[in-house]
Amino acid sequence: MELAREVAAEGNRGTHFTPPLNSDELAFYDAVASNESAVEIQGEGVLADIARELLSVMRRDVRTDWTVRDDVRAKLRSSIKRLLVRFGYPPDKQPEAIKLVMEQMESMAPRFAEARL
User: Fold this and answer.
1) How far is CA 98 from CA 18, 60, 91, 93, 113, in A?
2) Residue 14: Cβ within 10 Å count
3) CA 20 to 30 Å from 60, out of 13, 108, 109, 113?
4) 3-state secondary structure 36-98
């Protein structure tokens, strides 16, 4: 029973945001909110906005071969960094956030690349 409650709570975790975060946005939210000071400085609402924007960046820039092409990866990293700067994400925490966001994008990339074909 306890496990069922935990699974249900995890499934509904994005609903307390306005507007609610879907599972992909929630994955990016977790990446940028992994640093406690970023949560304190930015607040959950701003981090949720960053997560929504990150998903938009991914949808716009994902290509079938982006995970193996260094130039495309560099452009994507640059887009992520500009987004974090625009939202005032703490500069000392950006490298780790960029790394986590890139890892999330790599895990999601096959699904998004197939959708574009």
Assistant:
1) 24, 17, 11, 9, 20
2) 19
3) 13
4) HHHHHHHCHHHHHHHHHHHHHHHHHHCCCCCCCCHHHHHHHHHHHHHHHHHCCCCHHHHHHHH
Task: Check the CA dihedral 23-29-35-41 and report its sign.
Answer: negative
Name the pTM for this structure. 0.80
3-state secondary structure at position 107? helix
In the predicted model, is pLDDT for residue 107 greater than 90? no
Non-local (6+) Cβ contacts of 81 within 8 A are 94, 98
With the CA atoms of 20, 22, 24 and 26 taken in that order, what torsion angle do they form, in degrees rounded to the nearest 10? 40
- Per domain, the residue ranges of the chain are 2-116
Q: Which two tokens stand for residue 47?
A: 């981090």
Average pLDDT score over residue span 99-114: 81
Residue 53 has pLDDT above 70, yes or no: yes
Tell me the C-alpha distance between 33 and 82, whole Å. 17
